[in-house]
Specification:
The chain has helices spanning 4-26, 33-55, 62-86. By secondary structure, it is mostly helical.
Length: 87
């Protein structure tokens, strides 16, 4: 299992990649600026949420906690990537 530090760095890297995609779309005049800004806000709040959750691991079944966290992160990043494509 990866350390918390490695997980946080991975979450930050993926979030940064999504953020760069959204920011580059903001520079195109044909895109919906409000939707792009909402996506940017969602990315930053998602990153903060998952990093906070890693910092405060629930006691008990740690493997189950991290498995659930990974599934939710994958789902959220996929949803955001689809929203970026739709712009």
């Amino acid at each position: 299992m990866a350390t918390r530090r490695q997980l946080k760095k991975a979450i930050h890297a993926i979030s940064e990649s999504l953020l760069l995609d959204a920011l580059s779309l903001c520079m195109i005049e044909e895109t919906n600026q409000e939707a792009a800004h909402q996506i940017i806000n969602d990315i930053t709040s998602m990153e903060q949420d998952f990093i906070q959750r890693i910092s405060h691991t629930e006691p008990g079944s740690v493997k189950l906690f991290y498995k659930k966290l990974a599934e939710e992160f994958l789902k959220n990043t996929s949803d955001i990537a689809e929203r970026i494509k739709a712009l």
